[in-house]
Specification:
Two copies of one chain form a homodimer. By secondary structure, chain A is mainly alpha-helical. Chain A has six helices and three strands. In chain A, α2 packs across α3. At the A-B interface, α1, α4, α5 and α6 of A face α1, α4, α5 and α6 of B. The first copy, chain A, binds a DNA duplex through α3.
DNA sequence: TATAACATGTAACAAGTTACATGATTTC
DNA sequence: GAAATCATGTAACTTGTTACATGTTATA
């Protein structure tokens, strides 16, 4: 359960309320680790029920009071355990974006190339966004961003290779022959 | 909806029944595009309701009859439309495995390295599995497998870099300084 | 004074998974 | 004769999202 780990870990670094957490994730992690607001609020409530965190309410004016969360000892233990479990195993990382590729040969090459160029633009846009976000980051956050960057590069290069391949008008070149060049 | 696209696309290549489809995906796609059996059966039923595919029942002995599906014209149209939409845009590809990395500095370096080595072994195991699967593939399936292979390589190399970094006993080297070497 | 930002949530829905159910046929 | 494979499904559960609800305070 990555999102619990993330929220717990961030709260461990600094006590925060829900809104603040959402802000932090939006600005520092951007699209890398997506958590929607209601999800975060919901997880916080459930972790509070589990005794992993406790809230202290802070009233500011007449707004809804901020629920500032602090990690408890039980929460710290849970964090340590989840972190280890999470680091050691490798969840195969689903690539939803790859499905369409399987049927690339169902399209005329010219159109396939045009679509892939659109996709490439989207990848590059994400890379740019990442580059812009790349300032000071707490903890090992920069490691995660670098990880993401490398995968974006991998995707971009791969798209380029596929496009290059499709652009060759020689029909003897099956798409299967794309070079592996490790 | 990647799974619908996948099932439709496979049925377009060859009429199949649910069990057969599940087999095919298991053997040819392995862990790359995970669809569980009940999910596949469920999607097939719903696509039948939508008129994208039609089933013809084949009785063999006294077993439950095989429901062999064929793509209809409406299904073909849906496939073409979904394929284009899918190829053109780039879904950010969530990396659940990266969350733990953010808090890598919460662990003693030696333990972090040990855990990362376990993770590395899991990545390499997947690469081996992929290499074994790498025989004849219909359509552009090989492209998808190559895509996956490259991402596994990226992950393996990245883990190696992080390990190398943690192994340096010099405390002046913050994890943030991991080289980008593009 | 209207809009954005602050701050929390609820309720309905969507997508998939796990575990369970059922029974026939083939293989060891 | 036991175990694996064939073949289909249902039901409960988990996880997360979208859309909605509510009201306050700062900013343009």
């Amino acid at each position: 359960m990555e999102r619990k780990l993330l929220l717990l870990g961030l709260l461990r670094l600094e006590d925060m309320h829900g809104y603040q957490l959402n802000e932090f994730i939006d600005t520092h992690l951007g699209s890398s680790v997506p958590i929607k607001k209601p999800t975060a609020y919901n997880l916080l409530k459930r972790m509070e029920d589990d005794g992993w965190i406790i809230a202290s309410e802070e009233q500011a004016g007449n707004r809804p009071p901020r629920r500032v969360y602090t990690v408890t000892e039980a929460g710290e233990a849970a964090f340590q355990q989840m972190l280890r479990a999470h680091l050691a195993r490798y969840t195969p990382d689903a690539y939803p974006s790859v499905t369409g590729i399987v049927f690339l040969d169902a399209l005329p090459p010219a159109e396939a190339v045009a679509l892939l160029r659109q996709r490439r633009a989207a990848v590059v846009a994400l890379m740019d966004e990442l580059a812009r976000t790349h300032d000071a980051h707490p903890g090992s956050l920069a490691l995660a961003l670098e990880h993401r960057r490398r995968h974006l590069v991998t995707d971009r290069d791969w798209i380029d290779d596929v496009i290059a391949h499709l652009d060759q008008p020689d029909p003897a070149n099956q798409p299967e022959q794309l070079e592996t060049h490790e």
